[in-house]
Amino acid sequence: MTAFSRKLGWSRAPAGAFSIRRRLLGLSLLAVLGGYALLIGATALLANQERRSQHQATAASVRQLLLARRPVPQGLDAISDTLAQLISPNFLSWVETDQGVPYGAAPQIRLFSIPTGVSLAQLPRLGGGPDQVAVVRVGQLTFLTSSQQIQLGSSSVRVRFLEDITQKLAQQRLLLTVLMVAAGLATLFTGLLLRPVLVRGLAPLRDLGLRMQAISSDTLDSQRVLVAAQPRELAPIALAFNDLLDRLSASWERQRSFANGVSHELRTPISLIRNYASSLRRRSQDLSDQQAEQLALIEAEAGRMGKLVADLLALTRIDANRTLMPFEPFDVAESIERVAERLRSRCFGRLRICPGATQSARTFALGDADRFEQCLVNLIENAQKYDPGAGPIQLRLDASLDRVVVHVIDSGPGVPDSEKQLIFERFGRGRHTSAIPGSGVGLAVVRALMEAMGGSVSVTDGPQGGADFQLRLKGAAPLLGA
Questions:
Q1: CA torsion angle 274 303 332 477 (round to 10)
Q2: Residue 174 CA to chain centroid, in angstroms?
Q3: Is there a contact between 370 and 338 (Cβ–Cβ < 8 Å)?
Q4: Is the pLDDT reported for residue 3 higher than 50?
């Protein structure tokens, strides 16, 4: 991930973030299941309506047969005899009195009962017209029943109809079960097909995200997302992102110009303040102890401000690509010795070089010696500031054919895992360092310089506690004559 992406707050998706692909897949499968559920429900409803229609059609056929009889049956006995001839195993009809009692003239009607032993007289009464069809459930059996008022000659009689639909319902349940199993298998198959389809369909979104992440502060002025290459749905996002880059580029340039200009303007007066304070302190024979202490404080603060201004200038020059970083082999061991000699008096004997760090067989790395020493000084001063005790500050050198690692190990409180990336951000400081003076720029300068040399800086836990800051560079062969 680029530094520019980190500044914008871009990072990997958090663990709790939802996946668009999974959500689309879930919604698609829900839609498929909903469609099948609607199909199965409609099938059951249509089957129920079809049974009622068939029942009414059969009842209408019986009525037509009665009306077509010649001679027309007159009297309840004649009508009952005629209906008795129309009895079938699944469809029955009989004459019903006004009180709802089956007329018992014919023996087969009089003795007839539903197979479970329930008498016909116990069926519910129907007060509606011929379109009213009721469902009757007796034990394991299901029936449809209806009645019609039929005019036969000069007499009007009510005929009751009863149809056994138990077998039809069993067939319907079997059909619906098969449909549900088929729907489940079809949904599973659809899910397997949708997965690669969604991956392919969302590929432009992933590609757009990768293009956005590839843009860094170095290419902020020139690199843009190609809108014409995006699908219509992503074109507005690409346009908005390009507009954001334009505004960020302008803001970035204003910030760099401001920091560069202010740093240049401040460097001279801060140097003058520091030099004059140092000169006055050296001539402090006629000053009181308090005045001498105040001059020392002015000198120290001016030095701290001077270092901050220098760090800001280094950052702005790196951002503007104005820092020429020669990539040539330099002797890392010699650089460690020079830094140790320079800082030994300021570290009050705490600085220790581990055996082998300045070995006779010199170790070369690819980069710039002055910039590397600046990074090493920053780390040593940082360790001294955050470890105010008397613990040692160790310098250790590990080298291989293609890698050189310089360790700065202190015995302080260490760096929490949650802050091991934060402390290298510009103006980023740990939560428990508010009582220690600092600007949060020094480690950012170290990272920027190391990355400009093709290396890196990181921090881990020290072997005996504390922090282990590591400067990594590419190993190199020495120059001829070195």
A1: -70
A2: 43
A3: no
A4: no
